[in-house]
Structure formats: C-alpha cells, structure tokens
Amino acid sequence: MKEIEKTEAEPKLKVTVGEETPQQEQETVVEKPASETPSLQQLIRETVAEEDVPQIKNGITLRKVVFGDILTAEIVRRQIWLFLLITFFLIVYIAQRYKYQQDIVEIDKKTKVLKDAKFKALSSKSELTERTRQSKILDMLKLNNDSLLKISDRPPYYIKVPE
Question: What is the rounded CA–CA span in Å between residue 24 and residue 27?
C-alpha cells in the first residue's frame, strides 16, 4: 500500500490504493535529535501501517483445514511436539495391533493342528484297545491254529514270597 503525505505542519492526508474515499489522520510529529540514529526495529515500526499487518482470524474454516493454513497457526506451532507424540503413539498402536492379529492367526493354525493330532491319537488309541481285547486275541488264535493258549478254567492265585 502506498501512502502520500503532505508537509509535517498540516494534518496528513492518507490515500490508500484500492479505496475511493481518502481518509484523514491526525498524527503528531516527534522531532528526534540528530545525534540519535533510529534502530532497525524503530524504522520498521514507523514504516509499517496498520493495514499492512495481517489480521489473524480465530475461526477455523474448512478452507484452512483443506489447504493446510491451519498448520501455520500459532496454536499448532506451539503444540507441534504434542502432535508428534500423538503420531508416534498412533504408529506404535497400529504396529502392536498388526502384531496381535498375526499372533491370533498363528494361534488359530496351531490350535487346528493340535486338534487334528488329538483326534488322530484318540482314534489310534481306540483302535489299539479294540485289537488287544481278550475276545479279539482269542479269535485271532483260533483262526491261526498256531497256539496252544486257552482261557484258564481256574481263577488266578497269588504266590506270596517272604521278604
């Protein structure tokens, strides 16, 4: 924005490009001693008009979020470490959840293998029990006619050995 100023004794006429009506401002002129040189900060303060300073709007709009203007806000800049910490925890959470799901899949596979092994052991045991019954053994011996084994007519008796 350009400003046109009149002499120091008269009120200054301020003309801003883009506006149709000129505005009049009363400013007091402070005379500085020649020995004192203004600092850079003072020069900047004198040359920058209020219109040149960007006005910060507090409202959060969809446009600010979509175009990323919200990331330049002072609130976000002050809390950047919090956002980074939250992002780190989210990554750790997602990684742990993925690992947990992989462990569940592995446990399911091993459970299925274990059930198959149990059923196979149970069927083998029942088959062995069926084959070793006394009646089955006697039937096998009768078919082979190789053995002289017979069922005893007398009950078993115990021999006591003195110690």
Answer: 10
Cα–Cα dist 18/12, whole Å? 19
Instruction: For residue 75, give both structure tokens.
Output: 């609130």
Residue type, 3: E
Answer whether 0.90 is exceeded by the pTM. no
CA angle, 39 then 45 then 49, to 5° = 155
Residue entry with tokens 């002072």: 74
Classify 48 as helix, strand or coil.
coil
Would you state the structure tokens that stand for residue 80, as one six-digit string? 């950047």
pLDDT in tens, 26-83: 556 555 555 567 788 777 777 776 555 455 556 778 888 788 777 777 777 888 899 9
How far is the C-alpha of 127 from the C-alpha of 64, rounded, in Å?
76
- pLDDT tens-digit map of 56-72: 556 778 888 788 777 77
Give the mean model confidence (pLDDT) for residues 138-154. Answer: 79
Quick one: 141 exposed, middle or buried, by C-beta within 10 A (0-12, 13-18, 19+)? middle
The pair of structure tokens assigned to 32 is 């500085």
